[in-house]
Amino acid sequence: MNEPTTLYIIRHGKTMFNTIGRTQGWSDTPLTREGEKTILYLGLGLREIDFKEAYSSDSGRAMQTARIILQEHQNGANIPYNTDSRIREWCFGSLDGGYDGELWGVVPRILAYKNYEDMMTNSISYKELADAIITADTANWAEPYDKIRDRVWSGFKDIAYHREKHGGGNVMIVSHGLTISFLMSLIDNRLPMQIALENGSVTKLIYENGKFTIDTVNDTHYIDKGNAIFSTT
């Protein structure tokens, strides 16, 4: 009999761009020392979870996060690990790498809102966000909504289906804030946009017979647990 298939989806550790407030989609910077320390704690907090497989996006910050977690895991050397480009962050085109204020300054104006707070109060959709980013992108690199939806959904669902087909169990996945939030909206479209997931937070999904169920969102207790372990060693 199969075990339940559970995805532990982790937002990567805090990076240089996260720290100085720059937009980080397909652009990439490494984890800061603070970011590395937080992920080390996370790895200690997760070290006894029986992961059958591990995945990350192919972005450097996600791969760095996955490696740190696996290094701290009691069986990390034996957990199969692969990257998947489909679970990357959204691409922000010419806004990638710019300060957050540029992205969140122009997008509300395109959507006819006064500012970011006004836009979020009115609960815009992810499609509206994607369309606005395309309008703002002067390089024509940003992805259309349908392409983002198809790659993100197929990426996570294929990982879950593969694990269920091979007996179920726990899967560790390192991805990105907006991508994780977007995935949850595809599972339950009643959820508000949640683009402020904490670095190193865990969002847990259960997958059974082709259907995802959201268990926990933005859970940081594994970091706290690992910090306590680290403090006593």
Automatic annotation (TrEMBL):
This is Histidine phosphatase family protein. The keyword Membrane does not apply. The active site is at residues 12, 89. Keywords: Hydrolase. Substrate binds at residues 11-18, 61. It holds the Pfam family His_Phos_1. It comes from Enterococcus plantarum. GO terms for biological process: negative regulation of glycolytic process; regulation of pentose-phosphate shunt.
